[in-house]
Each structure stands twice: as structure tokens, then as C-alpha cells.
Hints:
Blueprint: E1 2-4, E2 10-12, E3 15-19, E4 22-25, H1 27-30, E5 35-38, H2 42-47, H3 50-55, E6 64-65, E7 69-70, E8 79-82, E9 111-116, E10 129-140, E11 147-151, E12 163-165, E13 171-175, E14 191-195, H4 197-205, H5 211-217, E15 224-230, E16 235-244, E17 249-254, H6 258-270, E18 274-279, E19 285-290, H7 298-314, E20 318-320, E21 324-325, H8 333-346
Parallel strand pairs: 16-21
Antiparallel strand pairs: 1-2, 1-5, 3-4, 4-8, 5-6, 7-8, 9-10, 9-12, 10-11, 11-14, 12-13, 13-14, 15-16, 15-20, 16-17, 17-19, 18-19
Amino acid sequence: xxxxxxxxxxxxxxxxxxxxxxxxxxxxxxxxxxxxxxxxxxxxxxxxxxxxxxxxxxxxxxxxxxxxxxxxxxxxxxxxxxxxxxxxxxxxxxxxxxxxxxxxxxxxxxxxxxxxxxxxxxxxxxxxxxxxxxxxxxxxxxxxxxxxxxxxxxxxxxxxxxxxxxxxxxxxxxxxxxxxxxxxxxxxxxxxxxxxxxxxxxxxxxxxxxxxxxxxxxxxxxxxxxxxxxxxxxxxxxxxxxxxxxxxxxxxxxxxxxxxxxxxxxxxxxxxxxxxxxxxxxxxxxxxxxxxxxxxxxxxxxxxxxxxxxxxxxxxxxxxxxxxxxxxxxxxxxxxxxxxxxxxxxx
Length: 347
């Protein structure tokens, strides 16, 4: 990846394909740049994307302009971009190790493969650079929420945005800024790898989750849930969830109130484009998919959400911020006992 700043100076970084023509890089590689381009080397052109690139008029090493989209949180060193013409390139699978599942000793001394494009002096062109390394430490930084891995390889400019593959053939994370102090050269710092969770967040925020990832995470990074119950007692027994993951639009709801449930189902039936399914999760989770034009689904989905919300509000339920959830029948002994216990604790 080649970036050009306002002074006309060029910088080199890396990026990797996660599927469907969507690529991931480091935010600092592209942020504030006047222009950004990616290059394909001759191997990838000939073996992986020859037909697609030639059909579009790209020759060997021809730079392709991109429009990077940064993570919504400026403290998170991740950006993504889409190149649909390169969707046929093999994708790097992202690991499923979310932050909450990682302890300080997980992954330590595991073998990894670091891939990127650090410039090699006197080389005629940028070439893929691969190095084996070990994970030396798992750290939490004071300026970023997510887990970082310290890797034994030398930190080099141009590795930024590159992928680090684990022993299991999945992406451990993305190379970010070298950890150093007092303005020392990058090579004197620690090679730092940001874990996959902010990558998934960034992809979801821009509607660029590849189909495989959208199905794998099933709304975890894209869905928005509202809870309804009794705010004074901090518990809820009903919820509405909307989800647009870049490929599908759907609305789900659950409530133990049979009357409200019937009204909500009838309301969705009356809305054009929605078709319902019932998936058993505990008592019942009602999932309604929007089968109209996905690109125009935001407005119908919002209208459906406000319609279902109005039904719950009319039944006397109010929004709850941090609820204890139950979707069991209001008359079930276990549910009555639960509410009784919550009441006694809060009193």
C-alpha cells in the first residue's frame, strides 16, 4: 500500500484481504493522507487475480486508488476499504479470540507468521516480507481498550497494517504502531499486534462484514437491542433487536406477554417486505427478515422498530438501560421467584 501526504512524500504500509473484496489496514497508514493506493505484485496478478485486473485495465504493479474507512473510535488503529474487483483473492480468516476470552498468559510463546511490506533498501520494488516469530507477551495498553500482543520480530516501517497469522492458520491480529518512547526509531520499539475485535467492529461499522463473518458472528457486532420492563426495579422481560450487517436486514423480538407478542407479530405481518420465522431460544425468539432491497432497508427497519416499541409502551412497559433479562412467562413460578428476589435485593 502506497500513501502520499500533503508534502508529496510517499509512505509504505500493508493490508490484507478478509473476504468479498474487503481489506484491512492500520489507521495510521492512511489517516490524513492526500491519496492512498494499493499494488499487486506479479505473483498475485498472475496466479490470483489476473483476469479480473486485466479486464479492468490494470497491468503489473499498477496502483489502484482506495477510499479507506477508519474505525469510528479515533484511538483504534484500524481502517478498512473495499475493492470488489479483487474479491477472488484468497481471504485470511480472522480468529475468534475476543478480548474477554484472552488472559495475560494466553498465546505466550506461540509461533506466528508476520507478513507485510517493509521497504528493503536497494530493492527495485516492494516485495512481500515474511518472518517467523513468537508471542512474548499479552498486554493491555493505557491508551487503547483492546488486547495487544508483543511479538519477537523486529518492528519495521511498512509492516503496519500487515497480518500476523497464528499457528492455527487464522489472523491473530494486525500490526500497529511500534511501542517506543522518546521519539526513537521504530526498530528500537516492540512489534505490536492489535487483536481481531476492533477489526470486526470497524468492518461492522461500515457495513463491510464479509458474508462468512456476518454469518459467523450473527449480529454480535451489528445488532442494536432495546430492553423493556420496569426501570425502577432494573429488570426487563421484553426486547427488540434490529440488525443490518451489510448483507441482510432483520428485526427480532421476545416477550412473555402473549397479548403483546400477538400484536407485534400482526404488526410485522402488515408491513411490506417482512417475513417472520420463530427460532426457539429459551422461550421464544421471533426473527423477522426483510426481503426487500437491502440498500433501502434502513427506513423500513426503523419503522418496524418504532411500531413494535409503540406496542410495548402501550402495554405499560418502559425502556430499561441495564436490565436483568428474562423472557419466560410472567406467570411461571421461576419467573415470579426471580422478580421477588430482585425486588428484595433492591429494597
